[in-house]
Amino acid sequence: MIPSGCSKPVVVIEHLEDGLSPWILLEYRHLSGFYGSNCVVFTNIPEKYHRILGRYGIPVKESIIEIVNSGVIEPGEMIILDPASPRELTYEILSRTKYVVVGGILGDHPPKKRTWELISSRLKSIESYNIGDGQYSIDGAVYYIYYMHSNKGMNGYKYVDGVSIRDGDRIIHLQFRYPLVEDKPFISSDLIYYILNRRIPDHVWEEIKG
Length: 210
Known about the structure:
alpha/beta; Alpha/beta knot; three-stranded antiparallel β-sheet; 8 helices; globular; protein-arginine omega-N monomethyltransferase activity; SFM1-like
């Protein structure tokens, strides 16, 4: 399960949605772009999606529950990001971690504690940690890990709660916490295009088909 050439904690995205919607695909694609496809593993992935997700990481049919229970990964090598955990992640913890599990779940507002229900409660031997009191998108949570690892802590980190996307007279509000990068919310431009037009950008389609 350790991808070759990865010098930082491997991000394990446990896919928990039915199918592979355009929204979640675009979040997966975005996180792969900044974190590195060689350091991303997608678990619980039906084989029919392996070709697509193989562009953005390593797709695995088994769930992280099955992988841990089979003994492939030692409990001390892994942590779970869970908003319901009472413990906040620190760089000291991250620095000795090989795998960080992130729930591949499109968020609800208010949160329904699905990460705890579907992952943490089923892997009680694995420590879980929160990344603050806000609810992040999947790629936003991975960016938090990326920032913490790159900066050896969270000094200088900024975020915004809620992002409004304007299209003429129409305003679409995303009620989640987003990292700020150069004082702008860190959200995929391709996802914004999809939200406004309800279709995947042509260049992404070409990438997937190619």
